[in-house]
Amino acid sequence: MTNDIRHAGPLQVVIGGEAGQGLVTIGELLARSLVRAGHHVLATQSYMSRIRGGHNTFSIRAGGAPAAAPREAIDLLVALNDETIRLHRRELTPLGLVVADEKAAIEGVPVLKVPFERLAAKTSVNMAAFGIAGAVLGLERTNLERAMADFFGGKQVEAMVENCRAVANAYTWIDAQPVTFKKLAAPPPPPQARIMINGNEAIALGALNAGAKFCAFYPMTPATTVPLTLIEYAERMGMVVEQAEDEIAAINMAIGASFAGAPAMTATAGGGFALMVESVSLAGMTETPIVIVVAQRPVPATGLPTRTEQADLEFVLHAGHGEFPRAILTPGSVEECFELAGKAFGLADRYQGPVFLLTDQFLADTYRDIIPFNLEPPPIAPLPSECPMLPYKRYALTETGVSPRLIPGLSPQLVVADSDEHAEDGHITEDLEVRRLMVEKRLRKMAGIKAEVSPPVFQGDNNPDLLLVSWGSSQGAVGEAAAALRAGGTRTGALHFPQVWPLIPSHFIDYLNSARAVVAVEGNAMGQFARLIRRETGFHIQNLVLRYDGLPFTPEYILRRLSHGTTA
Known about the structure:
Blueprint: E1 4-7, E2 11-19, H1 23-36, E3 40-46, E4 53-63, E5 74-79, H2 82-88, E6 92-101, E7 111-114, H3 116-119, H4 125-137, H5 141-152, H6 157-175, E8 181-184, E9 195-198, H7 199-209, E10 214-217, H8 225-237, E11 240-243, H9 247-259, E12 264-268, H10 270-286, E13 290-296, H11 313-318, E14 327-329, H12 334-351, E15 354-360, H13 361-365, E16 367-370, H14 432-451, E17 457-460, E18 466-471, H15 475-487, E19 492-497, E20 499-501, H16 509-514, E21 517-522, H17 528-537, E22 543-546, H18 555-563
Parallel strand pairs: 1-8, 2-5, 5-6, 6-7, 10-11, 10-12, 12-13, 13-15, 14-15, 18-19, 18-21, 21-22
Antiparallel strand pairs: 2-4, 3-4, 3-16, 9-16, 14-20, 17-19
Helix pairs in contact: 1-4, 1-5, 4-6, 5-6, 7-8, 7-12, 9-10, 15-18
């Protein structure tokens, strides 16, 4: 290949095609190869709700510095079909390149037409495309081969041989082509080994690290890969993962497991969580710890099952009839997925009730290269087998609202629980004074939960002209947009909320009051978090950048909306 131009990055690589063409395999292998070569990556997926067909993409930002959000411009487009060319050719950068089959109908843009049928058997064409992409980016062939060996795990030896042959043929073919492309420059060796992981995998590992022992679920995109990851480690970690017949059964199984002493969780999306709502109240009344992962997608009803949104905040905040304590954690990065999953189990254990981890499809499916997690487990106190206060009262009135919790069958004491209102000993009561005391007892636990709230994270200029407020997965795009504004001379700050309930006004009200203009950036149509802030503090965030078309935020999208006067 001639004209070997080296570029420090980041570059945006997009692989596009139909479901069933193996583009996810190409994407994951290419991202892993880039990480092995020392590059930082951020890999995102956009896919339709189809087993075969439709238009899907796997996008990778890669370079010498970490990336926090996807970009819209494309440097290298690997098109597995003509539709990908038609849909994305206008997004190419001036020095961009399209990789397509030699039969593809394309004119007017730089294109590398590849004879895929001559380079690989029909079953390995995607591996030839993988090889072409790796060669164009300047990766060593051995790097790609090691990634394939790890990915396929020594299985299907004959297929592996054919895949390696396809990659080798791709490198041999491309060496003879006059291709001009800004290859990725080799970065310095990373100071520390890194792993590539997505948000759902990080949540699962965070749960295991926190001591999770039971998960029940019913498959629902985009939450399913949380329990599927748990299944991979279940035997080694002494965990039970159960696929239930529906979401109602799943949450009730998890509550039952927790009642029996196993730290338990469930994972679902909005439609599945709608079926779980009654049991959220059951956990609140029986004061049973449970972690509930809600991975958001565009709604209502089935909505867009494989796209992303942040429209379930108010639903989760008010889910379950009645008043009882809860916490809602909203990770904005892969690292926060791991950390906050652990925190969720700690809070559920200490305050004996439901704790929510609210994520979305974008964060669930986004891969990043990160330094391996700190595996020190969050402090979860072992449950006692004896009670210092006799006779034992499961719902004893205490100053903190937290009552002594014993596990049935592990002590001589009788453990009584009921979904009806109950007295301190757990037996049903219709004593209205006891009812009042029990409501107040449960709500006193909120003081402890508030003391452990993860405060918002501020970055940027103090007393800014513009403050961007975000929660959850929009953190990266907001951070990059704020950095671009600062580079352009605008004093800008970014305030990210990794926990949206309970809100502690003293944590953030000064940031809001000190900014000349405040803009809330949210993936919904009604500015749900801005409304929550107004309800809790009286501060009205009038300016909104909203997105609800099923796509994740990009820095470009935010900057365009700001230049047009904000609001959706």
